Each structure stands twice: as structure tokens, then as C-alpha cells.
């Protein structure tokens, strides 16, 4: 090979971002764990928190919503900012904001102070989450290694979702509600110290104009969607606030599409959706995220309100599910190598749907080992395979300059899906419970009947995800 040819390859080859990429992945996954954990760890602390800060039930709901709204609404913007101004830079800014906001939340002496801190937490999470996934794709460019890395990523996300109830109960009981926020601080500081030592600086890039109109309309549309879904759960579909937010989301969404079609430097190039695997992966993540968030919510309430478990015991009962998820996420590379991404995804969705249907059969006097453990293990297996492969499809074939956008898209799909699933399926469960109560059923039986419908609804969403997954092209292309 000639010297000039060698020089040309060196100039065009993507830079090596780390010589210790698996350790770097561990630190990135630690930050992702905090982001996922913070969406659920607060739930157990809400009653104590509300009593000490004087927050009523409606205000307590905003402790969750204040985090979810900016997180879901700013993810696409966060991903695009990371593409334009540097993935490592935006990741570190996001982590720093998250740590500072967590400390502020733990120090809160009023409801307003806490809600403000939660909003900053959500906005910071929207910066770091897509940037972290983009860094993962840059660290692991060969398909086999990337699948292994995404297996770890999916396992961490699953652990964060399942561990929230357990850790929230332990920390609140032992150290008070403030500890569910303070726990983020030392872990975040470790991430801030380690990443500059493990990942190189962002390569120089040509500055480009930020699509401000596109950013404003899509952010407003996503915030309106999440807000409408939260209002739907609390106020119902026909409430003026719910309808107003839905209309706002539609109008802003349409305006965003028109802007992106006409601008020369769009925030989200609509051509990215011509990538069939990316589109399929995001739709699957939307549906599976809807099923998962509703599932974890219902399991926690069912264990405590129907079976009489305390918060700690309810959290411990989810450990087998989380364990199965982690094991399968770790085995995902081998499964993908044997069955392909599409085959592994379809098989995972079938197992997940079967576990949800089985769980829907649990009676009001369910015995954990007999009625809950088996379906929990199937659900963990299905979620582990589905999350890894859906994420892999979502970043398949994406150019290096759009990896942050891809990370923002898949995280947005998961967040919007989660809000959608919780709002719709929780409403279905509540309606079914009211019907059974009106028919004279005891409270425990009525609640169980409502949760049964919720689990069946989650299974239906999973089946729909399987139908969508059938349109994937197959195994993502290998990368050098």
C-alpha cells in the first residue's frame, strides 16, 4: 500500500475514542443507571416527602412529572446538540447538571424548590442520555462488540427500572427521603472524574447553524404529549387540559414537520426515517416501553395493595425479574449471532407476551412462588432480549454525525412510550376495577381484575411490537 493511500485511510478513519473502552462503557452505563433509576426511585419516598414538605396528592404527582416532562421533551434537542457540539462535552455537562440538581433536591425545604430541582434533573438527563449512547456506538464500531456493549446497556437500564422500588424503600427507611436524591451525587462525581481520563476529547467539527424553530416546535410538541398523557391519567380524556395539550401537540408536531422539510440544516433530517431498521427499532421501543412502565407500576401496587407486602418486600420480589433481564442481556450477543437481530427480537417479544398473559391469571390471593415467580422470569427474559435488539436496530446504519440524534430518538421513544402505556393502561385498570366494585366484588378482587386487564393490555402492546419487528431487514451490517 502506498504512503498516500495509507495517509488517506488515516484521515478518513474514525478516531479511536478510548484505549480502555470496556471500562469507559462501565462508567457510561453507571450514568445511564442513574437516569433510569431516578424515574422510579422517588415513588416509595413520596408519602414521607409529601408529609414533610406539605405537598398534597396532586402536588406529589408533579414530583414525578417535573422530571419526566423536560426529560422526554428535550431528548431530541439534547441528542442533536451532542452531535453538533461534541458528545463527550454534552455528556459531561449533563452529568454535572444532574449531580447539582440532585444535591439541590436533597436539600429542598419547600415543594417549589424540589420541583425546580427535579426539572433541572430531567433537562440534564436529556443531555447525557443520548450523548452516552452515541459515545457507546463510537467506542464499539464492530457489530459483534457493539452487540455485547448494548447487552450491558440494556441490562443496566433494566436493573435501574426494577431497582427503583427496592432502593427507594431501603434508602427512605434508613436515611430519609433526601437520600434518594443524595445517592446520585457520589456516583455522578465518579463519572465526572473518570470520563475525561477514559475517552478522548471530541474531534473538531465545523460549526453549523442550530435549527431553532425546529428545536422549539419539537420540544414543545413532546412536552405537550407527555403532559397530555399525565393529565389523561389524572383527569381523564375529556378534561379540557388533556384535550388542549393533545391539540397543542398535534399543531406543534405538524409545524415541526413543515419546518424540517424546508430548512437546509434541520434538527431532525426526515430522511433518517428511511432507515427501516432505525424506524422499526424506535417503534418497537415505544411499544415495549409502554408495556414495561405500566408493568412495573402495576406490579408494585399489586404486591402492596392486594397481597399486603411492605415496600421492601415488594421491591425484593422484582429481583428475579431483574436478574433474568440482566442474564439474557448478557447472552444477547450469542443469540444475535445465532438467530440474527430480527429473530432474537421476535423470540423475545413472544416470551414477553407469554409472561404478561400468565401474570394476568394471578388471583387476588396469589402465592408468589406459584403465581408470580414464573411469569416474572419470562418477562425478564423477554425484556432483556427486546431492549438490546431494539436499541441495536435503532442505531443501525446511522452516520457518525447523527449518533446523538439516534440516541435521542430511541430514548424519546422509550420515554413517550412509557408515559403512554402508564396513562392508557392505568386508566383501563381503574375503569375495570370500578365496574367490578359496582358489581359487588370485594376490593381485592376488583383491584386484581383491573390489574389483569392492564397486564393483558401490556401483552397486546408487545404483540403489536412483534408485528412491527417483522418489518426489520435482519442483521445490522458489520462495521470495521
TrEMBL record:
Coiled coil: none annotated. Keywords: Cell membrane, Membrane, Transmembrane, Transmembrane helix, Transport. It is a multi-pass membrane protein. It is found in: Cell membrane. The keyword Transport applies. InterPro entries: MFS (IPR011701), MFS_dom (IPR020846), MFS_trans_sf (IPR036259). Residues 24-477 form the Major facilitator superfamily (MFS) profile domain. It comes from the Bacteria. The keyword Cell membrane applies. Pfam families: MFS_1 (PF07690). The chain crosses the membrane at residues 22-46, 58-78, 90-113, 119-140, 152-175, 181-200, 212-232, 238-259, 280-307, 319-336, 343-361, 367-388, 451-472. This is MFS transporter.
Amino acid at each position: 500500500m502506498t504512503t498516500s493511500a495509507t495517509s488517506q485511510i488515516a484521515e478518513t478513519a474514525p478516531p479511536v475514542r478510548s484505549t480502555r473502552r470496556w471500562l469507559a462503557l462501565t462508567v457510561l452505563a453507571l450514568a445511564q443507571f442513574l437516569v433510569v433509576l431516578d424515574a422510579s426511585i422517588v415513588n416509595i419516598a413520596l408519602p414521607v416527602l409529601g408529609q414533610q414538605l406539605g405537598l398534597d396528592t396532586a402536588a406529589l404527582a408533579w414530583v414525578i412529572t417535573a422530571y419526566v416532562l423536560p426529560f422526554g421533551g428535550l431528548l431530541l434537542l439534547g441528542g442533536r446538540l451532542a452531535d453538533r457540539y461534541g458528545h463527550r462535552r454534552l455528556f459531561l455537562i449533563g452529568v454535572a447538571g444532574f449531580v447539582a440538581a440532585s444535591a439541590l433536591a436533597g436539600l429542598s425545604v419547600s415543594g417549589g424548590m424540589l420541583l425546580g430541582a427535579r426539572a433541572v434533573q430531567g433537562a440534564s438527563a436529556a443531555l447525557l442520555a443520548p450523548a452516552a449512547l452515541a459515545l457507546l456506538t463510537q467506542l464499539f464500531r464492530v457489530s459483534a462488540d457493539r452487540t455485547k456493549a448494548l447487552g450491558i446497556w440494556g441490562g443496566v437500564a433494566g436493573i435501574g427500572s426494577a431497582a427503583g422500588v427496592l432502593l427507594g424503600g431501603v434508602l427512605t427507611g434508613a436515611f430519609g427521603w433526601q437520600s434518594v436524591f443524595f445517592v446520585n451525587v457520589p456516583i455522578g462525581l465518579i463519572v465526572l472524574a473518570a470520563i475525561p481520563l477514559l475517552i478522548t476529547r471530541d474531534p473538531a467539527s465545523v460549526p453549523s447553524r442550530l435549527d431553532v424553530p425546529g428545536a422549539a416546535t419539537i420540544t414543545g410538541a413532546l412536552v405537550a404529549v407527555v403532559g397530555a398523557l399525565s393529565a389523561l391519567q389524572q383527569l381523564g380524556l375529556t378534561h379540557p387540559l388533556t384535550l388542549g395539550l393533545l391539540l397543542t401537540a398535534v399543531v406543534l408536531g405538524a409545524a415541526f414537520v413543515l419546518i424540517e422539510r424546508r430548512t437546509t440544516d434541520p434538527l431532525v433530517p426526515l430522511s433518517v426515517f428511511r432507515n427501516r431498521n432505525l424506524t422499526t427499532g424506535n417503534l418497537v421501543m415505544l411499544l415495549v416501553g409502554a408495556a414495561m412502565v405500566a408493568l412495573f407500576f402495576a406490579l408494585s401496587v399489586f404486591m402492596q395493595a392486594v397481597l399486603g407486602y411492605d415496600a421492601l418486600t415488594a421491591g425484593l420480589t422484582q429481583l428475579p425479574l431483574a436478574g433474568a433481564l440482566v442474564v439474557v442481556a448478557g447472552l444477547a450477543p450469542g443469540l444475535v449471532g445465532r438467530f440474527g437481530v430480527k429473530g432474537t427480537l421476535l423470540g423475545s417479544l413472544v416470551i414477553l407476551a407469554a409472561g404478561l398473559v400468565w401474570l394476568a391469571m394471578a388471583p387476588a390471593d396469589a402465592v408468589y412462588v406459584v403465581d408470580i415467580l414464573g411469569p416474572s422470569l419470562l418477562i425478564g427474559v423477554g425484556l432483556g432480549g427486546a431492549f438490546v435488539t431494539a436499541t441495536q436496530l435503532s442505531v443501525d446504519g446511522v452516520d457518525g454525525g447523527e449518533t446523538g440524534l439516534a440516541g435521542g430518538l430511541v430514548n424519546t421513544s422509550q420515554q413517550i412510550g412509557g408515559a403512554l402505556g402508564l396513562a392508557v393502561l392505568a386508566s383501563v385498570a381503574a375503569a375495570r376495577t370500578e365496574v367490578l366494585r359496582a358489581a359487588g366484588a370485594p376490593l381485592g378482587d376488583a383491584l386484581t381484575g383491573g390489574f389483569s386487564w392492564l397486564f393483558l393490555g401490556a401483552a397486546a402492546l408487545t404483540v403489536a411490537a412483534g408485528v412491527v419487528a417483522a418489518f426489520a431487514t435482519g442483521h445490522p451490517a458489520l462495521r470495521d
